[in-house]
Amino acid sequence: MAALRPLRRPYADPGIAPVQRRELWAWAGFDFANSGYTTVVITAIFSAYFVGVVAGDAGWATFAWTAALSVSYLLVMAMAPLLGLYADAHACKRKLLLATTAVCSLGTAALWLCGPGDVALALVLIVITNTAFGTGENLIAAFLPELADDEGMGRLSGYGWAFGYFGAVLLLAACLWWVQGAAVRGSDTGTAVRDTMLLTGATVFLAALPTFLLLRERIVATPRAFVALWRESRQRWRGILGGASDLPQLGRFLACIVAYQAGVGTVIAVAAIYAQQALGFTTAESITLILAVNITAAVGAMAFGQLQDRIGHRNALALSLLGWLVAIGLLALSEARPVVWVAANLAGVCMGASQSAGRALVGYLCPPRREAEVFGLWGLAVKASMVLGPLAYGAISWVAGGRHALAMLATSGFFVVGLILLYRVDVAQGRREALGTGPAAPPVKAG
Asked: Do the domain assignments include residue 7?
């Protein structure tokens, strides 16, 4: 990890200290902390528990699950521009990050209360915790341009994703051990699954403590009236959705993110459901598969984090989206276990790669001192995709009478659209727009 070192002093303002190496570890460590939530609750364990136990395998269960996730993402989207502007104006990203992490942690622990028939309670807690998680993602990402230079954003972003998957692997392995040992303890699988919610809630908060203690705010607060922030947030909302942003290439890339992240988000949201409902995996088997996928995702994030700084963010992202298409095709067209394992691990590599490359490219196109605002818009795009993709999957599987393979195959369309939209992004021009240098500026790496 020698490459994880201070990359630059991001601002030359007097009185602002240079970036310390420990801050890079603290920033990357937050991914280690919060990835446990999305892996255990959204992807691997509670999602399938909700469909099979809480909702009793009802025909509408998958749709209800994806609808609850969609509500949470809509809430994150609605708050993102205002929260980003507020965080920039008051230099309070770290304080807001602490608050959202606490809510996510406590809400996750409260999922222990959900047993058979507790559908309403489970869905409300999922909306609360996933909203807090998504908002925290935006806030931690907004620190990236303060910590890394233009040539190092991909590397640092890749380390963050890799640490995140590593943390998810450790927590998921602990959960697998606890679930598999239920019979020995005289318990049952359902109770063991509920217990893992307590473990996850505690882990998320404790693992994030170094971030809160070590990471520093470097933007100087310039407080503004809430009314002015509210007015500007509405303008930003309309501007980015209407393509009227002052950063048109960033706007194009955000549209690309909505497309391909819809596919990524779908796989994350329904992985365990698909494994158990479509492929007949047991709870322990699906956890084992997702455990392996998280390892390959860490490899993908690490490898592509290095690669994208060499071949360009856009080229690395395009390569990962092509890999996604191959993985989805294999997964939808074959139920043979060897094929499923190959497809799932290819998807893992591409998941780490596409998420790392996307976040780094947003940082590359971000103007100085607008980090929280821009990454709030990035979060808006990602959460819009998380509404679109899983909800489409849930609706297709419900209408198709539970044919999950058909719904999974339809997911590949999101990656195709993402590739088309990515082709329209001029990265070099976008960087010039971010720096305010215009088209006459010296050329920069276009990939």
From this structure: no
